[in-house]
Write a structure and sequence with these properties.
Elements: H1 2-21, E1 36-42, E2 45-51, E3 58-67, E4 70-82, E5 85-94, E6 107-114, E7 118-121, E8 124-130, E9 133-141, E10 147-155
Antiparallel strand pairs: 1-2, 2-3, 3-4, 4-5, 5-6, 6-7, 7-8, 8-9, 9-10
């Protein structure tokens, strides 16, 4: 009897794990939970990120960081369908809207995997905590070429 209970617990645990890790198709409708107005704190200030619902083969977002009641920088982001996959692209702007990247340059994050609660791009991951909370993990290259992962906790 004890062995049956152990096997049952293991089967339930493995089933829960496999459901969590099930890879979804790279379609915008599978990541629509990202849409909304999100607020958080990072880099010593207040962050705001606003994502649109999927339409026209893409989702778009704006981001801003406010420190000491002054905008430090903005970002424009898109997730778009490309070649049966998704890609996240962004551009940075100073508070006066002068771009960091050159005119035709974007920072690109190719899709790695989508599950029920995660969208994993190369260098950026969105994690659904609930319908009103998500974490975004961004790999940032430091001046000494080391990579630091910064966590943004957002709430609607």
């Amino acid at each position: 009897m004890k062995n049956i209970i152990i096997l049952l617990v293991l089967a339930i645990g493995l089933n829960s794990f496999s459901q969590e890790k099930e890879t979804l198709e790279p379609k915008l409708e599978n990541i629509a939970w990202i849409a909304g107005t999100w607020h958080g704190e990072a880099f010593g200030g207040i962050t705001e990120e606003i994502w649109s619902e999927p339409s026209g083969g893409s989702m778009m977002a704006t981001f801003k960081l406010i420190v000491d009641e002054k905008v430090q920088f903005y970002e424009i982001e898109v997730i778009r369908e490309i070649e049966d996959s998704l890609i996240l692209q962004l551009k940075h702007f100073d508070s006066d809207l002068k771009g960091w990247e050159t005119k035709n340059e974007t920072i690109d994050f190719p899709l790695i995997e989508i599950t029920e609660t995660k969208v994993i791009f190369e260098g950026m991951t969105f994690e659904k905590i609930s319908s009103n909370e998500m974490n975004v993990y961004v790999d940032i290259k430091n001046d000494d070429d080391t990579i630091e992962t910064v966590k943004f906790n957002y709430k609607k």
